[in-house]
Amino acid sequence: MDLTSLLSTYGYLALFIGTFLEGETILIIAGFAAYNGHMSLPLAILVAFVGSFAGDQTAFYVGRYNKKFLETRLKKWECRIEKVHRLLEKHQVLVLISFRFFYGFRNVTPFAVGTSNISPLRFFCLNGIGAAIWAVSFGVGGYYLGDVLERFLQDAKWYVAGGLLGILAAFWIIKTVRSRLRKSRC
């Protein structure tokens, strides 16, 4: 089975599962696949929206109805949950629409919101708006990234492309390590 048939058979399911759990990377890849004609960009964006929205709604209700789970199992998130609560006091609408765009708060925010006094209907509406903005942004971003990479790779030598990808990977690793160190300090 080649990549094209894998993407057409399992691509949307993988995209749904990936965006249900987190999803930036898989959505960018789906946008890139859409650029190359392996997926439909509008359908990929729709699937990503549904996956992200459903995942965050699920996390909200886990936070709402299973606070003991959060208190006992997720002690490592305690500091971030407190930060989310402080942000919600000052910028509730902005936080609820934009949390997907902030690394480190993407996964914890819906759980934290579930432990707050924000109504399920309010979260439902703002979560939908945020999921739509996020899905369109990253889906279209991945699509145009495909265009940029294709143009770049047509003009560049493979060793230059490999070197640049290596440098990008090194920066990403350094950023990830620094972020994790900061999180452990809270």
Structural features, described:
It is a single chain. This protein has helices at 3-21, 24-35, 41-65, 67-73, 78-98, 108-114, 120-155, 158-185. The longest helix is centred in the C-terminal third of the chain and has 36 residues, at 120-155. Helices cover 83% and strands 0% of the residues. It folds into two domains: 3-143, no CATH class; 156-186. The protein has 186 residues and is mainly α.
Q: Helices and strands in order, then pairings?
A:
Layout: H1 3-21, H2 24-35, H3 41-65, H4 67-73, H5 78-98, H6 108-114, H7 120-155, H8 158-185
Number of strands: 0
The H/E string reads: HHHHHHHH
H/I helix tally: 8
Q: Could you tell me the radius of gyration in angstroms? A: 18 Å
Binned strand content: under 5%
- The domain tally reads 2
Share in helix: over 70%
Look at the helices and sheets and give the structural class: mainly alpha
Shape: globular
The low-confidence parts are none
Highlighted features:
2 domains; mainly alpha; 186 residues
Short description:
This protein has 186 residues and is mainly α. The protein folds into two domains: 3-143, no CATH class; 156-186. It is built from eight helices and no strands.
